[in-house]
Design goal:
- The complex is a heterodimer.
- Chain A is built from eight helices and ten strands.
- Chain A is an alpha/beta fold.
- In chain A, β6 (96-99), α3 (112-124) and β7 (128-133) form a beta-alpha-beta unit.
- Chain B is of the alpha/beta class.
- Chain B contains 18 helices and nine strands.
- The chains are: A alpha/beta, B alpha/beta.
């Protein structure tokens, strides 16, 4: 049986989502994406030249291979996010959306209150909404209730390459969630991605770690393998811990009486 | 919004039964060694193949429970308000076709029961009735809850399934918890055990926890009546139901009970009896499956069993129970729903708990929250 990831009306075989920013050149980006085996790439609306000049990012993205996930990166409020989403849908011809609202330009921390507000409006407008958020289990449930298609909790601050600093909360989110959980932001090494997948994340999104690597193509392959390994471990693995020492006083001997 | 029915209908009772019997010792080991366990791990742990691992399961279950709940044991008492019932349930002493005098307590009689229960120290009561919608319906429950909410910090209800709006009305009146047991998840045989009355509608009962969740109940209790059908399959579906509910109605707390069919005036014998060893297995498996769910053990079980099993995963117990309306004030056993097995007094149960380094816990909420009267209301009025 094929292990398919379903997000709203979209299906994916690859559980590695990637970004399109920060690469040294569009050609390098294109090569790395191909090597990663990804089927979903984020595109920042603010990077898309909607007048379609020839050297545009879009001319390097094979939309037959990749579904596009426009993100609203750059907006600071729910109102701006809704506006940006509609522009993105028009420019890229998709209702898939990574909802990303950070009023804070330094750490780019997502605003949970504006995100919830915007998600509710956008779901009603027919968008397939994937909100980028803190690893906050209650917020995830609140977003699920307004109808988002997946949640994207962060592993550590965006661009930090620090790995799964939010591991305990990600575990709770995975345990409770009825929609796919995509760990986004902070995954700096393939082992970080494998760890998230082993925990039961449905997918991971990796951008910086691939885009700014010495050799993005090789690292893209390493992430591809790590995601597959982590997924297989989650599905089939024997997560056995060492046997806990047995206390001497028997608890069930009363049953022998 | 959907309901559990959509998940439940994807599975066949007999297929689950076969799967449980095909579990191997290595499947059990694998599930035992995990740190997070799925319903399929739970299935492995309740299989006959898991019985040789019972001692290990018991140690893990006890350690997990102590870590999550501490050395506490919540105590509650059932308060039977009525034994009137329009249903025929083949296993119940209140069944319509059982020839016993019927009794519904009036407010004065309820308060007489309260006086005895408060003397024992109870601050959490479970209101129980049969199903007689005309005489013991939502209006009666609301009055009873309002009457009792000044006296008890926590009020639970175990009565017929109600509609969402009716639950909301009772929650507004001060209701905290509703227990509604599916009895069995065997859709076809459910009808045989419940041939007459509103209870014979399987899906209305199956959807009840969804209605409770939508009503915003604080806590709900699930369970299957052990002995009606295959307890392993019924417990598996209970676990699956719990998992669905926790994810859907995530603001609600959950508890599980595992009542074994007791001698009763309905006369039904268990179809598949469950041994003491198997009941311990089930308790431990529930705990290993879910670290947060409350597990409740009633006075249906024997002294010997309760004295040992409460340490293996249980978080709440009833004590000194009477299962007939008016039973506490009158002090004589008649008109019972089922025979009590552990007949010791509340004081004796507390002593056992204390000897085992457990603290009896009487209070799990607050009457001020119950009646929505804030502590400083009187000052504000002055």
């Amino acid at each position: 049986m094929k292990d398919i990831l379903q997000i709203g009306g979209y299906q994916f075989q690859s559980r590695l989502f990637t970004g399109t920013g920060k690469f040294a050149s569009y050609q390098l980006m294109s090569d790395a994406l191909l090597a990663s085996g990804t089927e979903l790439v984020t595109v920042a609306l603010r990077r898309v030249d909607r007048k379609q000049s020839s050297e545009d990012l879009m001319s390097f993205l094979d939309t037959e291979k990749y579904a596009l996930l426009p993100n609203t990166s750059g907006v600071r409020t729910a109102e701006e996010a809704v506006f940006a989403s509609e522009l993105a849908a028009e420019a890229l011809g998709t209702k898939l959306l990574k909802l990303e609202i950070h009023p804070d330009p330094k750490y780019l921390m997502p605003d949970p209150i504006e995100t919830l507000k915007a998600a509710e409006v956008l779901v009603k407008k027919g968008f397939t909404v994937l909100p980028y958020i803190h690893a906050d289990p209650v917020l995830c449930k609140r977003l699920e209730e307004v109808g988002v298609a997946a949640v994207m909790p962060l592993g550590s601050p965006i661009g930090s390459n620090n790995g799964l600093k939010t591991r305990d909360f990600i575990e709770i989110i995975i345990d409770q969630s009825k929609v796919p959980v995509i760990v986004d932001a902070g995954l700096g090494k393939p082992s970080h991605a494998a760890e998230a997948m082993e925990l039961g994340a449905d997918a991971v999104l990796v951008n910086t770690a691939i885009a700014v690597a010495q050799n993005p193509v090789d690292i893209a392959i390493a992430f591809k393998k790590a995601v597959e390994a982590g997924r297989a471990a989650y599905l089939h693995g024997n997560m056995s811990t060492s046997m806990i020492a047995q206390a001497s006083s028997p608890l069930t001997s009363f049953l022998d009486a | 919004m959907g309901s559990f029915r959509e998940i439940f209908d994807q599975y066949k009772y007999e297929e689950i039964q076969e799967r449980i019997l095909s579990v191997s010792a290595s499947d059990v080991k694998l599930s035992l060694n995990k740190s997070k366990r799925s319903v399929w791990d739970f299935l492995n742990l309740i299989s006959p193949a898991a019985l040789p691992f019972l001692e290990e399961m018991a140690h893990k279950s006890r350690a997990t429970t102590l870590r999550r709940f501490g050395n506490n044991m919540q105590l509650f008492a059932p308060l039977y308000l009525s034994n009137e019932c329009q249903n025929i349930c083949t296993y119940c002493g209140f069944s319509l076709d059982v020839d016993i005098p019927r009794k519904t307590l009036n407010p004065k009689e309820i308060l007489a029961e309260v006086e005895v229960l408060k003397k024992h120290g109870f601050d959490h009561i479970l209101l129980v009735t049969g199903e007689a919608n005309k005489t013991v319906g939502v209006k009666y429950f609301e009055k009873a809850i309002r009457l009792l909410s000044d006296h008890f910090a926590h009020i639970s209800l175990e009565v017929q399934p109600l509609d969402t709006e009716e639950y909301q009305q009772l929650i507004e009146a001060g209701l905290n918890t509703v227990l509604v047991y599916q009895e069995t998840y065997h859709k076809e045989n459910y009808k045989l055990h419940h041939p007459k009355g509103k209870k014979s509608n399987f899906y209305y009962r199956l959807d009840t926890p969804d209605r409770l969740g939508k009503a915003g109940i604080h806590k709900m209790g699930l369970g299957a009546l052990i002995g009606l059908e295959d307890w392993r399959v019924d417990s598996f579906f209970t676990a699956m139901h719990l998992e669905y509910l926790e994810r859907t109605y995530w603001r609600t707390k959950y508890s599980l009970s595992f009542p074994r069919l007791r001698p009763n005036a309905g006369g039904q014998e268990p179809k598949l009896a469950m041994s003491d060893r198997e009941l311990v297995q089930l308790i431990c498996a529930y705990r290993l499956f879910n670290e947060d769910v409350e597990l409740s053990l009633s006075t249906r079980e024997s002294e010997l069993f309760r004295d040992h099993a409460f340490k293996l995963g249980i978080t709440s117990m009833s004590a000194g129970s009477k299962t007939n309306p008016g039973g506490y004030a009158q002090g004589e056993a008649s008109l019972e729903q089922f025979e009590i097995s552990d007949e010791r007094s509340v004081g004796e149960i507390c002593e056992i708990l204390t000897q085992n380094q457990y603290v009896p816990l009487w209070k799990d909420w607050d009457t001020a929250l119950q009646t929505k009267k804030l502590f400083n209301t009187s000052q504000a009025e002055n």
